[in-house]
Amino acid sequence: MTTDLAFTFLGTGAPPVSLRRAGPAHLVEAGGIKVLVDCGSGVSQRLVAAGHAGAGIDALIVTHEHSDHLVDFYQLVVSAWHQGRNRPWRVLAPQPALANMRGQYEAFARERALRIAFEKRPDATGLEVAFEELREGRVSGLGGLSIEAFLVDHKPVEPAFGLALSAGGSRIVFSGDTRLTPSLEQAAQGCDLLVCEVFVDSQMPVVAGVRSAQTVASVQSYHMTPAVVAGLASRAGVEALALTHLVPPGADTAALFAEIRAGGYAGPLIVGEDLMRLELPARLLRWNGAALGL
Ligand SMILES: [Zn+2]
Ligand SMILES: [Zn+2]
Q1: 294 within a domain of the structure (yes/no)
Q2: pTM for the full model?
Q3: What does the alpha-carbon distance between residue 273 and residue 18 come to, in Å, rounded to a whole number?
Q4: For the chain: N or C, fewer Cβ within 10 A?
Q5: Secondary structure (H, E, C), 4-57
Q6: Residue 115 C-alpha to ligand 2 middle, in angstroms?
Q7: Which ligand ends up closest to the CA of 16?
Q8: H or E segment at 183?
Q9: CA of 12 to the centre of ligand 1 (A)
Q10: 165, exposed or middle or buried, with CB in 10 Å at 0-12, 13-18, 19+?
Q11: pLDDT beyond 70 at 1
Q12: Ligand nearest to the CA of 245
């Protein structure tokens, strides 16, 4: 059976450290093309755990400037080179994220030169990076995998993008980090799978010395609560809903599941876990050796 479109959750977490949920990163595959979306903390390890490697990635797309989405960029570049990468990286991101990654790359220029000169690996092109600005619209050069970037609303971080991923007649919409916004509502209409961030407000109490009521309100304001996600998914008539970017990463998933149901979404529901893989159009969920039909 051919997999027309596959989506792998590499990291379903957020900035807080979690052993269960690495930093935000997802892998999209179709027609032999592999695109990594975001490179949060632990992405290189998760790629290997999922049976892939940084060496085999065709393009990296970073959705926005937040650290949890790009902090492992340089580690990804160096570890992929150690895996034998022999072609330059193609990296697409909005300008502020590009500037950050360029900065990471520049910060290690001397270290990189020393490695190249001393380690004498067969090919140094794997360390080269072509940085491109990510704009609204379709990303070129990905063969049968169509990726369309659309602006979402994660202010004050802007621009921030969501992605519509399609191949072979299947369509997945990935929210990126955003508050509820018309562009996402529109993109999600009737999609086969909506992969959506979630901020579990019921499990984010004020903690003295860690987060104030103002912190919780601010962070919640540029993300989506389970009630908001459920409303979006049911209005958009999505065929299936998967949650990722769990805040907090330690959220009780059964309670989260119940909150989505209470919010009025009754369709197939997946609380994403690291290394879970969804395949379309087969509607197959693979995780931990199990395969389940949605
Ligand atoms: Zn984030
Ligand atoms: Zn963010």
Answers
A1: no
A2: 0.97
A3: 12
A4: N
A5: CEEEEEEECCCCCCCCCCCCCEEEEEECCEEEEECCCCCHHHHHHHCCCCHHHC
A6: 33
A7: 1
A8: helix 182-188
A9: 10
A10: buried
A11: no
A12: 1
For residue 223, the CA-to-ligand 2 centroid distance in Å is: 8
Q: In angstroms, what is the span from residue 293 Cα to ligand 2's centroid?
A: 31
**Cα dist. 139→7, 58, 214 in Å?**
17, 12, 38
- Provide the domain limits for residue 148: 5-289
Does 118 map to a domain?
yes
Q: Specify if 247 maps to a domain.
A: yes
pLDDT in tens, 70-103: 999 999 999 999 999 999 999 999 999 999 999 9
Residue 115 resides in a domain: yes
> From the CA of 178, which ligand is nearest?
2
Q: What is the pLDDT of residues 92-136, one digit of tens each?
A: 999 999 999 999 999 999 999 999 999 998 899 999 999 999 999
User: What is the number of the ligand closest to the CA of 14?
Assistant: 1
**Any idea what the CATH number is for the domain that residue 116 is in?**
3.60.15.10
Distance 71 CA to ligand 2 centre (A): 12
Nearest residue to 240 (alpha-carbon basis) of 5, 2, 3, 59? 5
- Please give the single-letter amino acid code of residue 136: E
β-pair partners for 274:
none
How many Å lie between the centroid of ligand 1 and the Cα of residue 178?
9
Q: Give the number of domains in the chain.
A: 1
